Amino acid sequence: MSTTAETELPDLDAIRARYAAERDKRLRADGPEQYIQVKDDHVHFQDDPWSDDANQREPLTDEVEVLVVGAGFGGLVAGARLRQQGVDSIRFVDPAADFGGTWYWNRYPGIACDVESYIYLPLLEEVGYVPKNKYAYGSEIREHCMAIAETFDLYRDTCFGTRATELRWDDEISRWRVRTDRGDDMRAKFICLALGQLSKPKLPGLEGIEEFAGHSFHTSRWDYDYTGGDADGGLTGLAGKRVGVIGTGASAVQVVPHVAESAEHLYVFQRTPSIIDVKDNPPTDPDWAASLQSGWHKHRRDNFNALVSGVPQEEDLVDDGWTDMIGNLMKRIQSGKAQDFSPEGIQEMLELADLQKMESIRGRVDEFVDDPETAEALKPYYRQFCKRPCIHEDYLPTFNRDNVTLVDTDGQGVDRVTSKGLVVDGEEYELDLIIYASGFEVGTPLERRSGFDMIGRTGKTLTQTWTDGLRSLHGMHMHGFPNTFLMSIGQAANVVNYTHLLDEQATHLSYIVARAREDGLETVEVTADAEASWVEQCIEKVRERGGAFFTDCTPGYYNNEGLPRSSGSGPYGVGPGVMEFLDLLEAWRESGDLEGLRTT
Ligand code: NDP
User: Are 214 and 105 in contact (CB under 8 A)?
Assistant: First the structure.
């Protein structure tokens, strides 16, 4: 399924000027500081709606081999791969009451994943599961998280409803001491930090936010007691209610059609429109599922990864909006439209393929939205991967409903909150409910995002160590923090299919833990030199590849709200391309000499 029509393209210079003007309109001096932290007066925005915290227990003072902080997909794949290496003693610590991570917290109506289920859900062959549809809904994903935990016996030693408050290296015993908000003082030989990328909700720093007399919540903590219904919709509690949704990112796109169906009136407050591509979500063909041969999951995941990395393949197994781009590029080459294969020529080809895609996206808006002014406001003017592209069949047509108003703020955002509602451009919109679809903290200090810090071998905290940006080897090992593995994109690789990277990182760290067992090692720590050399390589790569692209992008969390980190070593700084990175990790393991790590 190709989603891009062959259209006559507008002039490249004109479109570049339009993109730049739209970006400039949105640039703000306060960049990421425009958002406020969910704490103090706002802390209720992150209360757990899914647990009554009944899981009381005595504080723990024992020792485990691996303590995993975070029970989402990162922690789950780490646990699974460690089990496969024969590691018995694994403990999970997570404030949630079950496995799932982002899929535990986010249960808003319509929640689904835009990356194909057959490649997004990890460990499908190991669990013996084939998803129900091409794109999975949130509840199915959460159930798969639990199935992984069951399959690999990961429930055995979990500390749920527990927030780590301090991780301190104790040099005398060569162990991490882990304190929590339940009074635990546990020891662990290895720590795996599987904290996710988008776990801490954030709020727009709007004046008057605490004055609102109606009800409000963040999408990641949906209040079904108020709205009624469930993740499939049926929000009967919204009957007669005036609802405002702030934000039009991937969460809002999924929420808006359901709210529109039940609210008396819905106002969607838009700063920047999202890309809305086709969502074709057929059920899984049982014959196809039965025909799958051993190794199919890896093969499909690798095929997708290669295509979205710009590496042509004989076939496009996933064939969706993500792989479409490379398809466009190949068509241009095959049709003879592209002939200049110099680095500049390739850049222009990519830009033209991008433009073709974006023209088709803008064309879809006219196709689905009746009112020309509303349609124009819903058209995104930026390059395809400046923001997370979305797929949805019902979002655009929702704006044809009489009870839905798009309040387009022309890039400026909501002005302020009052006791009655929201103000945009001097006009007050009276509301009963405000839904903050305002996203998550990215790149803020570890302590702020996770509620704990790590105090390493030298007494320095991780937050202090990262004052000038992330420092690591392979995005995973930090000098001064022995026996610690970080699972993250930063200084690793930026991927579309995040669980693929997590699984590769899990394979890598479980190999190192197994090696430590085999070789009788007490500690494994990256040397300062190896770390410095990797940081340099990452900075160089960002300069070569991503720098200019993200600087030219409209603001968002991908580019630190329009102020991209020039060093490339910030938490969203990336290492080599994902293909190169995965090959490099594999070669590192194959060489067998734990290069760059000091062991005792
Ligand atoms: P985002 O950070 O993507 O979106 C936040 C939204 O809030 C943006 O539209 C932003 O506008 C808007 N906003 C912020 N301040 C204001 C303001 N003052 N006035 C008006 N609007 C404002 O958060 P999401 O939760 O939507 O998505 C986060 C990520 O989670 C996604 O990028 C994706 O990676 C993942 N996700 C994936 C899903 C999927 O697979 N379908 C579903 C949901 C989430 P602006 O764009 O101008 O900054």
Answer: no
Tell whether 355 and 432 lie within a shared domain: yes
Residue 89 lies in a domain: yes
User: Measured between alpha carbons, how far is 470 from 567 in angstroms, rounded to an integer?
Assistant: 10
Q: How confident is the model at residue 250 (pLDDT cuts 50, 70, 90)?
A: very high
Ligand 1: nearest atom to the Cα of 269: 20
Are residues 127 and 181 both part of a single domain? yes
- % of the chain beyond a pLDDT of 70: 93
- Same domain for 134 and 189? yes
Phi, psi of 133 (to 5 degrees): -135, 170
152 with 225, same domain? no
Same domain membership, residue 116 and residue 261: no
| Number of structural domains in the chain | 2
Residue 373: partners with Cβ closer than 8 Å, 6 or more residues away: none
Q: Which residues line ligand 1 (CB under 6 A)?
A: 26, 112-114, 198, 204, 206, 219, 246-252, 254, 269, 271-272, 388, 413-414, 437-440, 555-557
pLDDT at position 92 over 90: yes
The last residue of a domain, from among 436, 458, 485: 436
- AA letter at 407: V
Confidence of residue 578 (pLDDT cuts 50, 70, 90): confident
Give the separation between CA 278 and CA 386, rounded to whole angstroms. Answer: 18
Strand partners for 111: none
Same domain (yes/no): 455, 487? yes
Domain boundary among 420, 436, 452: 436
Does residue 263 belong to any structural domain of this protein?
yes
Domain of 256?
201-279+350-436
* 546 within 8 A of 573, measured Cβ to Cβ: no
Domain match, 494 and 515 both? yes
Q: What percent of the chain has pLDDT over 90?
A: 76
Dist CA 179 CA 176 (whole Å): 10
Q: Which atom of ligand 1 is nearest to the CA of 206?
A: 18
Mean pLDDT across the chain: 92
Q: What is the CATH number of the domain that holds 429?
A: 3.50.50.60
| pLDDT tens per residue across span 377-422 | 999 999 988 999 999 999 999 999 999 999 999 999 999 999 999 9
Q: What is the DSSP letter of 179?
A: E
- The reply to whether 217 and 355 lie within a common domain is yes
Cα(438) to centroid(ligand 1), Å: 5
| Mean pLDDT of the region 51-78 | 92
Report the DSSP beta bridge partners of residue 243: 266, 433
Q: Tokens representing 548?
A: 């200019």
